[in-house]
Amino acid sequence: MNSHHFDNEIGDDEIRIVSSLSHHYRNNRSQEDGREKDGVNTSLLCLSSAKDKNEAYSKRGKVKGLYFIIGGIAISAIVLLALGVWLFLREDSPEDMGELFIEEVTEQSPNDAVIVVVSDSIPDTQLDSTVVEPEVLKHFTTRKDTLINKVRLVILTPHNAIPELQLIDEFRKDSTVVLAVQAADIRRDNLEIVGAYVKKGELMSKGESKSGFCSIINGQITLGAADASPMLEQALMTEGYFFRQYPLVVGSQLVENKPKGRSIRRALVELEGSISVVISQHKLTYHEFSQSLIDLGVRNAISLVGGDALVAYVEENGQKFISKDVSNYKYEYINYIVWK
Amino acid sequence: MGQLLQFSTTMELLRLPADSVVCITADGNYSTIMMADSGTYVLTMQLGHIERRIAEILSEDQNPFIRIGKSLIINHDFITSINPQRQKLILSDGRTFRKEVTASKEALRMLKEILEKEVEI
Predict the structure, then answer these.
(1) Which positions 79-108 of B are in contact with A (Cβ < 8 Å)?
(2) What dihedral angle (degrees, nearest 10) is formed by the CA atoms of A154, A158, A163, A167?
(3) Residue B69 at interface with chain A, using a CB cutoff of 8 Å
(4) Percent of chain A scored above 70 by pLDDT?
(5) Confidence at A89, pLDDT banded by 50, 70, 90
(6) How many Å apart are CA B64 and CA B74, to the nearest integer?
(7) Model confidence band, residue A135 (pLDDT cutoffs 50, 70, 90)
(8) Residue B19: strand, helix, or coil
(9) Is B83 strand, coil or helix?
(10) If we measure between CA atoms, which residue out of A328, A43, A136, A8 comes closest to residue B114?
(11) How far apart are CA A49 and CA A60, in angstroms?
């Protein structure tokens, strides 16, 4: 059997009966320019089949085509104009133009851009800082600042905490979270999650625009890069979690990504056998950030939402840091990977 | 129960009654199977592979599936409405569920012609 004809030999304007549906279809196949496939009786009904009809449509099609061309040129001109204005107004493009993600990158000085949180360098007024009773805490986050080839990085590592994905509403109500960072990107046009996203076994979004993935199965995080991963199915079957993002490092090898802009970068990384979140304190390209992670000793890493997206964590002494107030956010699909 | 469609991947085995499968949509390397009870199953399998499996499993006179374009397979028995102009195809059992899908105008026009001829005979 010629196996690949099912994959390739059909266009959007064509239909075919998967197998011979009935005698009726086979009897009428002479009218339909059917193509017999070896092994499986598959008739392909092509556009060219309705020859007379096509002639009738051709004149109408030409006029339509003309309208489409004129419309296309007009739309392109408007888009180019808008793009030009946008580029003019924006000095530092943070991301690629292909997918418009909400990263909420604002113009900031390099020091302000260190979202998180560094307790000494950011005035107290910028931080919602509260003290939680240390006796109650069994899980917490440690923070480590480091410098790798002149790149300042913050490493946040959760301890004794279980990871999961939460939407913004759930996150606002949950007081047990000890580390939270924004996970999957949100499309600016429809405000829905980019790429496949599974929450407690429920598929909330589909697609594979990015090949990097993070799955959480029975509390265990797996990072990787694959167009089709069995971890998605496993997350669906085990009430687990799954989301997609740009892959940065796979097997200690750098992965190139299309977006070339600079932004504050964040990554979910596998470092020294445990899972951590790494945050750059400078605006970097994906390439520069990936290289820094490799220099740091990261084995696998995927990107997280960058820019000034929320980061929150609770330290061992109960000190709680949150980089911004999200109480007024109305986007329901803003989502976080949290440890609690 | 009619014939069963069996799909096996590294993680999962699915056995679905063919007459309860409403449609199968493709999304890159994933395919989503929608059932008449409104349940859905996601498979890490391309639509072409699923189409081949169906052709292998079902006998000719029991195969109600039609491939429409690159990203859709429908069950002929659930077609309720075809509107090529609006590129709209409604699949329903007339009682419990109603699923609206889109396809190209030309494909829907051909599908409509086929079903018209089926009724005439």
Answers:
(1) 103-104, 106-107
(2) -50
(3) yes
(4) 69
(5) low
(6) 8
(7) low
(8) helix
(9) strand
(10) A43
(11) 18
Q: Is the pTM of this model over 0.90?
A: no
**pLDDT bucket at A106, cuts 50 / 70 / 90:** very low
**DSSP secondary structure letters along A201-215:** TEEEE---SS-EEEE
Residue found under tokens 């499996």: B53
C-alpha distance from residue B99 to each of A62, B87, B93, B112 (Å): 34, 14, 10, 18
Question: Is A21 within 8 Å of B66 (Cβ atoms)?
Answer: yes
pLDDT tens per residue across span B51-73: 988 988 888 777 899 999 989 99
Q: CA-CA distance, A151 to B43, in Å (whole number)?
A: 42
Does the structure show a pLDDT above 80 at A84? yes
Smallest Cα–Cα separation from A266: which of A124, A150, A156? A156
Give the model confidence (pLDDT) of A191-247 as tens digits: 889 889 999 999 888 876 788 999 999 999 999 888 878 888 889 888 999 999 999
How far apart, in whole angstroms, are the C-alpha atoms of residue A87 and residue A212? 29
**Residues in B touching A41 (Cβ below 8 Å):** 60
Tell me how far CA of residue A297 lies from CA of A182, A231, A251, A303, B21, in angstroms: 23, 25, 11, 16, 49
Q: Does A19 touch chain B (CB under 8 A)?
A: yes
Asked if B113 reaches chain A (Cβ–Cβ under 8 Å), the answer is: yes
Among B9, B67, B79, most A C-beta atoms within 10 A, so best to mutate, is B67
Sorted by sequence, the CB contacts under 8 Å of residue A186 that are 6+ apart come out as: A101, A102, A192, A193, A194, A331, A333, A334, A335
**Which positions in chain B touch A196 (Cβ < 8 Å)?**
30
d(CA B2, CA A226): 36
Asked if the Cβ–Cβ distance from B63 to A18 is below 8 Å, we say yes
Q: Tokens in use for A144?
A: 């480590």
pLDDT-based confidence at A63, cuts 50/70/90? low
**Min distance B23 CA to chain A CA atoms (Å):** 13
CA distance A128 to A34: 69
